[in-house]
Structure formats: structure tokens, C-alpha cells
């Protein structure tokens, strides 16, 4: 029997699901969020449902209030994975990446245009593979490294 094809939410649905998951993670109520953002309860409900045009400033305000990663919320919407925003809530992976990209832009400048797609894919794949390994092995990987390291 073939595997069922997972339903991929639309961008709006992914955004709405991410916002709701993050609000619940931080144990906040919709009315409380509306007050903190400074909008009506009805406007907040539309925002959290992912309806209407994207308001990036509102996403950043929402993230600031809940101390979560605004760039992970936007990425979660684009990759259609609301859970990605939750996975990044504590360590703010996408904000860290944006800072790294900002520094890369400042240091490499116009030379960035000389890169080819294969080099970018190869470099980023190595980074993400290493991060995935760290996520899987975590402290065990670090402990093995320290155990095997030669003392100075």
C-alpha cells in the first residue's frame, strides 16, 4: 500500500500554525497577545490564523514578546513546517544564521556574486550535516572529543 502523501499547509496556514504553537509553548492567551501587540482581539485572531497580508513587523513584535526567533517563524512559513519555528524557539537558529549572513555580506561583499550554486550547496550541506550530527549525538560527541583529546 502506498504511503499517504502528507498535506503541506499553505504559507498562511503554516504561519498560523507556527504562531499558535509558539503562543501555546509560552503559555499565553490570544487576548493577552492582542493587548501586548497593541491590536484588537479580532485582528490578532486573523493574524494567528495566517489570514491577510503578511505583516513582518507584527511577526517581529510577536517574537519579541514571546522571546522566540522571528526569522524561524518566517522560514517555517516558507518551508511549510510550523514545527520548525518551535524547534528554533530557544536557540534562535535562524537569527544566528541571519547575523552570520550579515557578517558574510560585510566581509565578502561583491565577491559573493562570484560563487556558484554548487559551492554554496556543498558548503551549507556540510554545515547542516555537522549540526544534525551534533543534534543527534550532542553531549556524547563532545565528551568523546574531550576524552580523546591529548592534554597540553
Main features:
152 residues, mainly alpha, 2 domains, 70% helix, single chain, 434 Repressor (Amino-terminal Domain), 8 helices
Tell me what the structure shows.
With 152 residues, the protein is mostly helical. The protein folds into two domains: 83 residues, 434 Repressor (Amino-terminal Domain), CATH 1.10.260.40; 38 residues. The chain is built from eight helices and no strands. Helix 2 crosses helix 3, helix 4 crosses helix 5 and helix 5 crosses helix 7. The chain starts with 10 loop residues before the first helix and ends with a helix. 21% of the residues are buried. The model has no long low-confidence stretch (mean pLDDT 91).
Q: How many domains in all?
A: 2
Give the end-to-end Cα distance, rounded to a whole number of Å: 59 Å
CATH architecture of the largest domain: Orthogonal Bundle
Specify the structural class.
mainly alpha
CATH topology of the largest domain: 434 Repressor (Amino-terminal Domain)
Q: How many β strands by DSSP?
A: 0
Strand content: under 5%
Q: Roughly what is the average pLDDT, rounded to an integer?
A: 91
The main β sheet shows up as: none
- What pattern of helices and strands is seen along the backbone? HHHHHHHH
Query: Which runs of at least 5 residues are low in confidence (pLDDT < 50)?
Result: none
Question: What's the CATH H-level homologous superfamily of the largest domain?
Answer: lambda repressor-like DNA-binding domains
Please write the CATH class name of the largest domain: Mainly Alpha
Shape: globular
The helix content is: 55-70%
What is the tally of helical segments? 8
Radius of gyration: 19 Å
Amino acid at each position: 500500500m502506498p504511503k499517504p502523501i502528507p498535506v503541506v499547509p499553505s504559507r498562511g496556514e503554516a504561519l498560523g500554525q507556527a504562531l499558535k504553537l509558539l503562543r501555546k509553548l509560552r503559555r499565553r492567551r490570544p487576548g493577552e497577545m492582542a493587548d501586548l501587540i497593541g491590536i484588537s482581539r479580532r485582528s490578532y485572531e486573523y493574524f494567528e490564523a495566517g489570514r491577510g497580508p503578511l505583516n513582518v513587523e507584527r511577526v517581529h513584535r510577536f517574537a519579541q514578546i514571546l522571546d522566540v526567533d522571528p526569522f524561524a517563524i518566517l522560514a517555517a512559513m516558507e518551508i511549510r513546517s510550523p514545527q520548525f519555528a518551535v524547534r528554533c524557539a530557544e536557540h534562535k537558529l535562524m537569527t544566528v544564521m541571519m547575523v552570520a549572513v550579515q557578517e558574510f555580506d560585510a566581509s565578502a561583499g561583491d565577491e559573493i556574486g562570484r560563487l556558484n550554486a554548487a559551492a554554496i550547496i556543498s558548503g551549507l550541506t556540510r554545515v547542516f550535516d555537522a549540526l544534525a550530527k551534533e543534534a543527534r549525538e550532542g553531549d556524547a560527541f563532545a565528551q568523546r572529543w574531550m576524552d580523546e583529546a591529548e592534554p597540553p
